[in-house]
Amino acid sequence: MARIIDGEKMNLIGENVKKYRKAKRMSQQLLSNKLELLGVYVCRGSISRIEDFSRTVTDIELFALSQVLGVSVDELFTQK
Length: 80
Prior knowledge:
The protein starts with 13 loop residues before the first helix and ends with a helix. It has helices at residues 14-23, 28-37, 44-51, 59-69, 73-77. By secondary structure, the protein is mainly α. The chain has a single domain, classed as 434 Repressor (Amino-terminal Domain).
């Protein structure tokens, strides 16, 4: 079944993923590597696409991102 996303943004968390990643002084590659240690395979390029809102994020990826970045899932959705 195809996913239908209305609008230009494919996710709601890209900006916060980038913010929290940079706050931890983590490169996109290091974030990808840490996700892989949890069994969640998101390549560096996909991290970039999440951060620029051009890629969707699965619930498993969302949970793993919150774990690696040390923030709650809610914090990934918090807007300024």
